[in-house]
Amino acid sequence: MTLSRRDFVRLTAGTGALAALGQFGRTAAIAAPTGSYRAMVGIFLFGGNDGWNMVIPTDARHSAYLASRGSVGIQRAALTPLTNSAYALHPAMGALRPVWDEGSLGLVLNAGTLFAPLTKATYQSRSDLRPANLMSHADEQDHWQGLRARETSRDGFLGRIADKMPASSLPPVMSLAGSTVGVLGRQTTPLILPTGGGLPARSGYSAGSSAKNSAITALGANADGSALLDGVAQTLTRNYDQATTANTILVGTAPTDAFFVNPSTGAALTSDLARQLMVVARMIAARGTLGHARQNFLVSQGGYDTHAGQVQTGNTATGFHANLLGDLAMAMAGFHKAMGSLGLANNVTSFTMSDFGRTYLGNGQAGTDHAWGSNHLVMGGDVAPGAVLGSYPDPVLGGADDITREGRFVPGVAQEEYLGAIARWHGVADADMSYVFPNWATWSTAGRGPLALFRA
Q: Among residues of the chain, what percentage have pLDDT more than 90?
């Protein structure tokens, strides 16, 4: 079998930071986006976040919430209230309240994987309309990132958006969550970034040096016309050049680092998610150097598979889940401040995703089990002030939205309606939405469409 240069790049994608940099032979599908700079920052909460304890109703529904949540319910007095809203955040998420108050935080209620619009009745009667392998970690992570609800994806929505961007000195799609499917395009290979330090560079390598490619040049010269070996030589050369460029941004300190602090103590944030978003802030600050009019990022936080010990017995406002959400809130708030310092608060939108929601009913181990729909956060200066999109489900166990008796709710908002709104804000043309979202036709007709997440 003869391998082309493109075949070689696809084979090396995801095998490491340097392999992920290679993009030889790539051509832009469309012209550079017009208008001001914009960036999407996806925050994937691996394990299945309990969104029902992240966003909680504070009106009359709170009594039903407590009754149905059982061992994991949180008392109203402990919550982080959101001004002029019927909802509150988890007690540990106080760092995000100022972001809400300034009108830069939105809520998306009961979103999840859907192949077609479903009710409880159609879920029970039409198995052909259900997403495949619901409540499976691997499958639902794939569904969220690849957006093919009944099949496996080899590429993801952030990568497919990047397919429609022009080539640049570094790829415009970057991941600090590894080479997950969300950042893989059909034509685009992502830049995989470390959370600390720089990318590995070849010993003795010097960009522009006549000696830098002695072995690589020899490889290409002896290729006897082999597209594969010639591709290897060109890819390695480009990888090392790109690593040199990236490391001028990644190594050392940057002004945006100073905004990642605990708002209560002033101590520097040290969580892995904070370090990831710190790197994202640096790459955004360097957008001009990199020649990026648009950028896509994926970061992640793990640990959300909270079957046990989600809350602390006797004080459900604390526990393992509270620690995770506290880190999430402080990292997001610090990132928002960093964007403000760059004058880019309105140009950057960050948003949460997760495998699935958790059961509304807590289990006997002070935890929750795999479920379906969940709540999510969207942050950025262009978010509509006070935005609350979607509908909170009927909290009655076994009720109108629960497909079991433990609180596994049919989502009311499809991923395409949620993520599609952000993609449109980002600049994806209407003609390209079906490329980015393979099932777009289902969610852009019959009264369905992107959520009104942003300012008019």
A: 76
3-state class of 158 per DSSP?
helix
Tokens matching residue 206: 């010097």
Residue 414, both tokens: 């499809």
DSSP 8-state code for residue 107: E
Q: What is the pLDDT of residue 374?
A: 98
**Average confidence (pLDDT) over 50-76:** 97
Q: Which distant-in-sequence residues (6+ apart) come within 8 Å of 39 by Cβ?
A: 284, 287, 294, 295, 296, 297, 344, 347, 348, 349, 426
Which amino acid, one-letter code, is at 212? K
Shared domain for 312 and 436, answered yes or no, is yes
Please tell me whether residues 229 and 265 are part of one structural domain: no
DSSP state of 2: P
| Same-domain pairing of 363 and 373 | yes
H/E segment holding residue 8: helix 5-12
Report the pLDDT value the prediction gives residue 280, as an integer from 0 to 100: 97
Q: How many domains does the chain have?
A: 2
Tokens 């079998």 locate to 1
Q: How far is CA 386 from CA 139, 242, 296, in A?
A: 33, 41, 25
pLDDT at 456: 81
374-391 per-position pLDDT tens digit: 999 999 999 999 999 999
pLDDT of residue 250: 85
What is the Cα–Cα distance from 110 to 159, expressed in whole angstroms? 25
Taking phi over 0 as left and psi of -120 to 50 as alpha, with beta for the rest, 386 belongs to left
Give the pair of three-digit tokens for residue 93: 């998420």
User: What is the SS3 assignment for 383?
Assistant: strand
Are the beta carbons of 92 and 71 closer than 8 angstroms?
Answer: no
- Rounded CA-CA distance 28/230 in Å is 22
In this prediction, residue 176 carries a pLDDT of 96
User: Which among 189, 219, 251 is the end of a domain?
Assistant: 251
Q: What is the mean pLDDT of the chain?
A: 87
The pair of structure tokens assigned to 312 is: 């602390």
Query: Do residue 215 and residue 96 come from a single domain?
Result: no
Pair of tokens at residue 345: 């608060």
Residues pairing with 108 in the sheet: 376, 389
- Report the alpha-carbon distance of residue 239 to residue 199 in Å, rounded: 10
**Based on the domain organization, do 297 and 396 belong to the same domain?**
yes
Whole-number Å distance between alpha carbons of 439 and 86: 33
